[in-house]
Amino acid sequence: MYVPFENLPEESRIWIYQSNRKFSDAEFSEIEKDLQQFLEGWAAHGTSLEASYQLKYNRFIIIAVNQEVQAATGCSIDASVVFIQSLEQKYGVDLLDKMNVTFKLGEHIAHKPLIDFKKMVKDKAVTENTIVFNNLINNIQEYNESWEVPAADSWHSRFF
Fold it and tell me: Hey, is 151 helix, strand or coil?
């Protein structure tokens, strides 16, 4: 069952999917409709999941579940991955590859394979102060506090 994102508790589990390219506004509008429809029917062991989403920077899909009401289980998580894979096919994007880094270069959002990001570090094209998106966070509280952070404050710090 869909609920507004701001109504979910901070402990709600979260998944972040980053696209390897920017979505158009029209594509993001379609994705929003598809997400609402998916979340309305999303369930674990026959019990509806209290879930929501956010779409950010025309590049990120964030899905959250209130685990206090009903925990997402293997089958329900698998269903969400199948949904994300359907978006990948529909829009010709990569949303599941965790070996990519998304970061800010001024007002621009950049997306690079990890190997290219490491080279940018070596070439000093990015620094410990570069804002990165830490997609390894687990809940809404971490999302609010630690999603957009300087590279020095995330797992990316090991490259400096």
Answer: helix
